[in-house]
Amino acid sequence: MTSDTPLWIYDTTLRDGSQREGLSLSLEDKLRIARQLDRLGVPFIEGGWPGANPKDVQFFWQLQEEPLTQAELVAFCSTRRPGMAATDDPMLQPILAAGTRWVTIFGKSWDLHVTEGLKTTLDENLAMIQDTIQYLRANGRRVIYDAEHWFDGYKQNPAYALETLRVAIAAGAEWLVFCDTNGGTLPHEIAQIVQEVIQVFDSSAEVEADGRRQTADGESAEKVEKAQLSTPQFPLLTPHSPRFGIHTHNDSDTAVANALAAVMQGVRMVQGTINGYGERCGNANLCSLIPNLQAKLGFSCIAADQLEQLTETSRFVSEVVNLAPDDHAPFVGLSAFAHKGGIHVSAVERNPLTYEHIRPEQIGNRRRIVISDQAGLSNILAKARSFGIELNKQDPTCREILQRLKALESEGYQFEAAEASFELLMREALGQRQNAFEVKGFQVHYSLLSETDRDRATSLATVKLAVDGKDILEAAEGNGPVSALDAALRKALISFYPEIGTFYLTDYKVRILDGTAGTSAKTRVLIESSNGHQRWTTVGVSGNILEASYLAVVEGLEYGLLLQTQAKAALAASATAK
Amino acid sequence: MTSDTPLWIYDTTLRDGSQREGLSLSLEDKLRIARQLDRLGVPFIEGGWPGANPKDVQFFWQLQEEPLTQAELVAFCSTRRPGMAATDDPMLQPILAAGTRWVTIFGKSWDLHVTEGLKTTLDENLAMIQDTIQYLRANGRRVIYDAEHWFDGYKQNPAYALETLRVAIAAGAEWLVFCDTNGGTLPHEIAQIVQEVIQVFDSSAEVEADGRRQTADGESAEKVEKAQLSTPQFPLLTPHSPRFGIHTHNDSDTAVANALAAVMQGVRMVQGTINGYGERCGNANLCSLIPNLQAKLGFSCIAADQLEQLTETSRFVSEVVNLAPDDHAPFVGLSAFAHKGGIHVSAVERNPLTYEHIRPEQIGNRRRIVISDQAGLSNILAKARSFGIELNKQDPTCREILQRLKALESEGYQFEAAEASFELLMREALGQRQNAFEVKGFQVHYSLLSETDRDRATSLATVKLAVDGKDILEAAEGNGPVSALDAALRKALISFYPEIGTFYLTDYKVRILDGTAGTSAKTRVLIESSNGHQRWTTVGVSGNILEASYLAVVEGLEYGLLLQTQAKAALAASATAK
User: Fold this and answer.
1) Do A60 and A187 fall within a single domain?
2) Does B418 lie in the same domain as B443?
3) What value of ipTM does the predicted structure carry?
4) Can you give the pTM of this predicted structure?
5) What is the pLDDT of residue B240?
């Protein structure tokens, strides 16, 4: 295959992805994700099932007002109900009202699901597929047909399963998508079944090459096609040359490999979700599939500069759906190119090829040298270098930092995600830590005086600080104890360091370190702060959640001040140079 | 293949798994995990690299004192250093001192790593492989040879890569393991390369079938073998019939599929880790591989009753390493057999085959009906049934519960992991909630008066309760505000409900719901409680972490009392029946 072979990515984060347990999307969330996917260059975005809930109806309306720039928005729906005409099924009206050019219809391939699930006959299921697709085609829609439970159905009753596809093609579906709905199929079975099926349709396509099928109301399929908008990147397909797609789930931990196996057999559409979100164990992860297909197998999915947005897209979506990103996710995870063993670190710095399967920059990720209790001196040196601190391996400070690091880690500290705290620790060992202020003590008070009067509950924090030998006592209220504490500290410091007015807390994470000792266990708090254009993370550990929070908040303020000092120094240096 | 074809599972959680960023294991952790793996029936357990750190040395000593019951413990080490005899390399002494029957030696297959990484010659690398294996064989050890960077090496320089394996076989290695160290290889490449390599050795094995190779010091390989213990489940292999293994990483999101692809080509050892822990994106996940190999492909890996311990093992290991379990993990995740769509739920209750790729009980997992904002009435009914509450679909209470549920979820509540809170909500709607006590208010005070006197910091909680119309005021101290609050509540209630003395908090999880608004965002707290033989989880949501904790703690106590009441009622009923 050449590097130009096109492969269509079909994103279903907004529909199948939202089936993930613990994930729920507001209308605004859905719109933000759709626009990000559009920027990423995904050609098909399945937006939802209009009519299933008011949110999905509104979503499609909003995108009629302000359409996406590149992607085709797709509405999703099942075949019509048994025993009624498609025109009479009220379910299909919101699909047309959604105003998309493309509609994905899912239907049953597995005889058991027809008789047990739908409680209808095998013939009626075929009629449902046919009528629904013909109805949509007659109304100017282009149709993708999702063959639900394809692999299980084909294994049980291949003749019937194939018949459902034949009906879908004859009715005018342009893409036929093999769905491994239960996620139980393994890659070698996917490869074998897809190969067999594509062979069946390749030969039947020849037989029908001159045929012209009719739509439900007698119009020729060709006429219907001309009636609709055709975009240059999606030339219309003739009804007798269907293309195939694949839709996999991760129940066997092989969703990505299953999709790849189908592509190797000639499938040209891959359905999946950002971060692999989806019901049960998730859908095939597009953040893994896109780089595998494009950077490794040479297919053309999205532009090279769009591929560089993949990591950002993954993190953006996890932010919007409010799920912690998987740091260990292939390609886009924070740890995907992290090196911690001492040997690895020196080797990877000499020649990245030796320990990296792909250039992280290609997908917008980056290499990281990790600080951990397995850290050797070479890691400490590499890390210091990344902070702009030149250390010498012979310098006893190096060994001191390593020992301090190990001592803190045994207390429960982890610096892997708290690089700002690690830099402060390093500067302290080197005698380079600024002591912008000293905290002498603090108190936090929370009072809920009546269960019926929760809105009047208050959190109050009092802090005692010293700056330049001068004591300051300040108090502030907040929505919670930590924001009260942060407010009191900033109130006390702002007259000395006005830049503190630009700092704010952007994230707050709490981890209980000993899961078996309940709330008296150690608590690790990570706090992310920002000054509007930089972000940094600090860590605090204590048996008490308030003290752990206090430690992280204080270091967060200190590190922000350090960044300001560095910025000023850099500015002064450049002014002098002029 | 028959259902009796044996396949050897090789666990490296304790060595390669511990390379995962954020994971560190104490000696006690390692011992607990090793014993659990032994119970699971994994035949090979790689314990670590004795000599790399004092912990690993001690680990092997401890297991010499109290050996595992079934599994072979394996020590891991690299080939000797360049330019010295194996007998002179101090690195190999702790390996012998570890006292295992089996040793895994890893060596370089990729010429680039020899010249760039080791900075030695290609010939010296071959000598290093040979000497190290011969030395261990001469000292009575059986050897597994891990061919590091096998696939990348073979692609670059197949002749040299094959030569490293020939040397390892001739020196007496019984297993040769193809390692995809960088994790960049895709399943079809794995299949092709493994097939080619096995063919090379199948034909060369015939040529050498009568040959007898010598160990370094002239002893026959056969004599060396007789000198060691042979266990019935691991018959000794002759040196000229090597067996092959596979070791994959998940950087391309295909680690499990890669291992399966190698097995389909004749490999009979699979290396991986529990929960897929490992450096960067992790190793091949044994919790997915074992059920795929055994329940789907018919290999014999572990006994059927051991397979039923797989889910428990996965969760045990995540507890010990103190990482939140992945709820969406294939096979063993909490959501792996969770059903939330209304259609799915009714269908799966009629015929599990329609929506489940494997029986969850087979791997010790279970089906779950999920409560969520997509919940329909049929989910509510199924859930109620699981709590022993019979609801009627026509009952308006059903719709009331659904509405209350949606309202709470829009406030940030989630009941998916807090079934106790959901049951209380349901009982409240049905008028079946016991009001064992009423909280009238509480205060929490934390004071750290001097930075140098942290040990004297105190958390104090005061609560005001009403039980049977009687007001109670109590105060208690704790390590943190939540434990102080819990202590005060229990102190206030224990004279009314003595069983509260057996309750304790077992886990405490905090999630900030809006990651962009810092500490003033909403906080969701999950609290797990226990009475010694049952566990339950409750949830609280508030803008204030203390209030959210308070809500969850109070419901935790209330639910514990409900369980006691139910247990007493059941006991009384059975007494009456007698």
Assistant:
1) yes
2) no
3) 0.72
4) 0.73
5) 46
